[in-house]
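Friendly challenge for the regulars: who can give me the structure tokens for this chain first? No prize, just bragging rights.
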Amino acid sequence: MIIKDKKKYRRFRIKQRIRKIVNGTVERPRFTVFRSNKQIYVQLIDDQEGKTLLSASSTVAGIADKKVNKKEQAKLVGSLIAEKAKEAGIESVVFDRNGYLYHGRVKSLAEAAREGGLKF
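First reply, four minutes later:
Bragging rights claimed.
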């Protein structure tokens, strides 16, 4: 794959390295994070079936209405996905940071999900 932008290429390589190891199942789905400049998105994915089990994002009405900074927004999304996962009977997941550094919004999201009861 040819990617001309150095930052995108670096993230792509890191992402490939992570995905070689991290796989999700029905019992322990992959908790993947996507972060854009304005929003943050989370999915719980079963890689064996190739299906998304649950998802949450900062565009949901309850979170988008609040006037908070992006780190606080990520915390709200983390607690929302943990709540949804508990309702679905999912207790442990495999964390996939998707090539992003475990820092800032990604870290806030992960810590909020852990506080909400998800184990990873």
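The chain has one domain: 6-115. The chain has a mean pLDDT of 94. Your move, everyone else.
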